[in-house]
Amino acid sequence: MEYRKYIDELYSADRLTELLNQVTSIIGARVLNIARQDYDPEGASVTMLIAEHPTPPDESRTREEPGPLPESVVAHLDKSHLAVHTYPESHPSNDSGISTFRVDIDVATCGLISPLKALNYLIHSFESDIVTVDYRVRGFTRDVDGVKHYIDHEINSIQNYLSDDTLEQYEMIDVNVYQENIFHTKMLLKQFNLSDYFFGGGEVTLTEAEKTDISKKLRREMLEIFYGRNVE
Question: Do β-strands 141-142 and 130-137 pair in parallel, antiparallel, or remain unpaired?
Answer without folding.
Answer: unpaired
